[in-house]
Amino acid sequence: xPGPHALYVARRINRSRQLHAAGNRRGAVELLKTxxxxxxxxxxxxxxxxxxxxxxxxxxxxxxWGIAVEGWTTSIERDRLARLLASxxxxxxxxxxxxxxxxxxxxxxxxxxxxxxxxxxxxxxxFAARNxxxxxRYVSASTDKxxxxxxxAASVGFGFAIATLLLGSLSVVVAxxxxxxxxxxxxxxxxxxxxALAGFALLMLTAAAVAQRRWxxxxxxxxxxxxxxxxxxxxxxxxxxxx
Length: 243
Known about the structure:
Blueprint: H1 4-21, H2 25-38, H3 43-56, H4 59-66, H5 75-87, H6 95-99, H7 110-177, H8 183-211, H9 217-242
Helix pairs in contact: 1-2, 1-3, 2-3, 3-4, 4-5, 5-7, 7-8, 7-9, 8-9
């Protein structure tokens, strides 16, 4: 004949099933959760709760409450439980609390040990790698955004420097053709403006590289080439104006 505790458990399970049949699924689940927390060693209560979740299609919760019963959970339920443990960042020290198990039961259940050593460890590593990738993308986007203004300013500066050189060259040629005596002086003003614009552009390009944390040898080479081209253009323009 069943003892008082077994009769009590049977009545609570029966009450939960009545609630579920009446459409009160939440009440049925909460009733059994409360009873499992009061009686964590009761496999009957765990199976009843896990069966409710299985019937509702919640494989992760079916695995959570049924994993302590050896051989009861399906491979899909164990996989979903492993995902749940990894995504919730439940540590090995918190497994007993999360699964509502009495002390020492985790080590005594081969299904749980195999789950932690296999799928849970795999998903933890996978989710950690995904989080690192997301963080890297966020940092990259942030640095790109920080350097975008400097890059735009550098482009504008170089554009104005080139335009100034071209228009200045044309102006000096026209001035010389019409015999303006002060054309060399005008040319020097144009040179000064070009140097200032080119210097500003190089400064902005350097600031963009620093902001984006991409100051590499290639960036330095491009800056040096730009500087040499600018100086060469200015020198040629100066020679033309002086002639």
